Every structure is written in C-alpha cells, then in structure tokens.
Amino acid sequence: MRTVLMSIKPTYSERILSREKSFELRRTAVKLEAGDRVVVYASSPVKAVVGVFMVAGVERGSPSHLWDEFAAEFGIEEADYLDYFDGSDTVHAIRVGAVVQVKPVSLAKLRERITGFRPPQSYQWWNGDLSDLVGDSVTRVDQALASK
Predict the structure, then answer these.
(1) CA distance 32 to 144
(2) Which one, 57, 102, 105, 110, has least CB within 10 Å?
(3) What DSSP assignment string belongs to 65-126?
(4) What pTM was estimated for this model as a whole?
(5) Which of 140, 132, 42, 131 has the alpha carbon at shortest distance from 100?
C-alpha cells in the first residue's frame, strides 16, 4: 500500500469525508491504484490534515464521457466541472473507498512534527510515518482501512 498526501479544497474534502463525493478529480495523472491510501490535506483556509481514504480505483476518460457516466458521484456542479477541465483531454477520477475522518492536524503542528514540511500544491508521495500526518488517529485509521 502506497500513501499520497493530497491537497484538496475544503469544500471538496468535506464532501469526501461526508461521502457526498465519491471521486477526487484531477487534471493530471496520479499513479494510484486500488488499495493505495490518500491523506487528505484541506487547503486554505483550513490548512490541516482532516482525513484519509482508501483508493477503490481510478477512472480515466474525456470530460464529457466521465460526466455522463459519474456526474451524480462527483460532488461538483456541472459548470464548475466544465470550468476546471476546460482545455483538458482527460479526467483522472480517483474513486473513494473507505473513509476515515481524523481530528484535524494543523499546518503548524505538521511543521512541528516534520522538519521542512510544506503542504503539496497538488500531491506528494509520503514515505514517512503515517502518524506524523494524522497524529493520535493513526491506529484508528489503520484499523478502519484494513477492515474495508
């Protein structure tokens, strides 16, 4: 299992954690596969790790094709979707599997734990200890994701 730390706008991170959004959408490919985990960093103004989800798969296709097939699961208005993917040939839709919400770990706390920490602009692979990102929630996260 690989881990990626992904910056997601607070509106969409909330929708992922509440299960209103079943896909995280990206313009550029992230080489994820089923069984990998995504640590969710809610970007400004929240600036904190707020949860983790297991990748259930990745769909790729044209913006119009994926909208026709999965629009109800994207958790985004059509106008915002079309605006985001304007000029893109391919949508990379990361299917959200099991989700665990964690007690938020602020950017300040992350910087205390991890020397030189900077939140990713989009995403970064994480090879460090998961507890550095999710704090005391690490055992609950590991148990919840392992049982799914």
Answers:
(1) 20
(2) 57
(3) HHHHHHHHHH-S-HHHHHHHTTT-S-EEEEEEEEEEEEEEEEHHHHHHHSTT----SSEEEE
(4) 0.93
(5) 140
- The 10 Å Cβ neighbour count of residue 118 is 10
Q: What is the tally of structural domains in the chain?
A: 1
Q: pLDDT tens digit string along 66-94? A: 999 999 999 999 999 999 999 999 999 99
The CATH number of the domain holding residue 107 is 2.30.130.30
Q: 33-77: per-residue pLDDT in tens? A: 999 999 999 999 999 999 999 999 999 999 999 999 999 999 999
- If we measure between CA atoms, which residue out of 97, 87, 86, 19 comes closest to residue 57? 97
User: The domain containing residue 78 runs over which residues?
Assistant: 3-146
User: How many of the other CB atoms lie within 10 Å of CB of 144?
Assistant: 16
